[in-house]
């Protein structure tokens, strides 16, 4: 895929550049898989996606979760029922609209998401420690440029990749679909 910018900057990416990014993606997928393995006896991957989404965006209603995940609301209802039963999610009536249910992480749900993120951070730190310091310094601008070129997901959508980087701003539940 060629963009006007790549042509203006000196041509198409080389096979070596593409291969390097693909290899790095494999490493990051492995980090993600290992972080999930640490908690897979407690939740399924789709359930973890729900938890990470709520951790990233704050309280949500069922319709907003379904829309964000691109699934039918009945699928979200079943997943959330299981998460409530496991003590990882709290479900309550929305005081602003009693037709909506608000989903929030419990302390246990927050701890589970934090555990996954901590495993990822530690794994990435371990890899970075194996690199010479001067390579790590040049890595930051290259990775940030790569993220920008990819359209850099706004922080509110980071849940879709399963990578949260900071606590969400607490507020009212988002999403206008009744569930």
What does the secondary structure layout of this molecule look like, with pairings?
Elements: H1 4-8, H2 15-37, H3 45-57, E1 60-61, H4 62-69, H5 73-85, E2 89-94, E3 97-105, H6 107-129, H7 133-149
Antiparallel strand pairs: 1-3, 2-3
Structural class: mainly alpha
Envelope shape: elongated
Q: SSE order in H/E notation?
A: HHHEHHEEHH
The level of helicity is 55-70%
Biggest sheet overview? 3 strands, antiparallel
Estimate the strand proportion: 5-15%
The CATH topology is: Arc Repressor Mutant, subunit A
| Strand order, sheet with most strands | 1-3-2
Output the CATH homologous superfamily: Winged helix-like DNA-binding domain superfamily/Winged helix DNA-binding domain
Residue windows where pLDDT falls under 50 for at least 5 positions: 159-179
Organism: Pseudonocardia acidicola
InterPro entries: HTH_MarR-typ, MarR/SlyA-like, Tscrpt_reg_MarR-type_CS, WH-like_DNA-bd_sf, WH_DNA-bd_sf
Domain HTH marR-type: 14-148
Pfam families: MarR (PF01047)
Short description:
This is MarR family transcriptional regulator. The chain is mostly helical and 179 residues long.
Key words describing this protein structure:
179 residues; mainly alpha; Arc Repressor Mutant, subunit A; 3-stranded antiparallel β-sheet; disordered C terminus; transcription; DNA-binding; WH_DNA-bd_sf; MarR/SlyA-like; transcription regulation
